[in-house]
Amino acid sequence: MSHRRQPIRTDNGFALFELVAVVLILGTLIAIAVSSYLFTRESAEEVAAKTNIRSAAPAVEAWRTDNHGSALDVDGDATTSGYQGMTLLLLQTNYARGLTGVAVPATGSILTPTDFCISSTVGTYTFFKHGPDGPITKVTGGTLLCS
Predict the structure, then answer these.
(1) CA dist., res. 127 & res. 125, Å (int)
(2) What average pLDDT does the chain have?
(3) Per-residue pLDDT, 38
(4) Alpha carbons 48 and 67: distance in angstroms, whole number
(5) Domain total in the chain
(6) Strand order in the sheet with 125-130
(7) What letter would DSSP give residue 134?
(8) 147 in a domain, yes or no?
(9) In which domain, by residue range, is 39 found?
(10) Residue 100: how many CA atoms within 13 Å on its side-chain side?
(11) pLDDT band at 76 (very low <50, low <70, confident <90, very high)
(12) What is the pTM of this model?
């Protein structure tokens, strides 16, 4: 009987090439996931800012209707009518308890009986609506057009 010696194999790990391939594949997958996440987050911020404006619009219009220039109207001030006297706190108290993310300018700026401006900022996106028939517009150049 002949006894052949079996070669001893000592494969105790992965070859360098295999490790590099795995790292490259994982890096590619992570890069795809991160870029997809960032795009989704930015898109969600844009939609949220626009939605805040749309959610506030009915409350703003209800304010105009109920603010008719008497001491018994919604703001209790006989010298204001229409959109005048409107504040975010009064909108939340009287019309939209869950209304958040919307800015109403200080009284006396762009709040007249027939005109208003509201804005919303979420993340890096700011949108505004100027007047009852105005479109929801993205702020560009850092300047709010109705301030």
Answers:
(1) 7
(2) 86
(3) 86
(4) 29
(5) 1
(6) 117-122, 125-130, 136-138
(7) P
(8) no
(9) 17-138
(10) 3
(11) confident
(12) 0.73
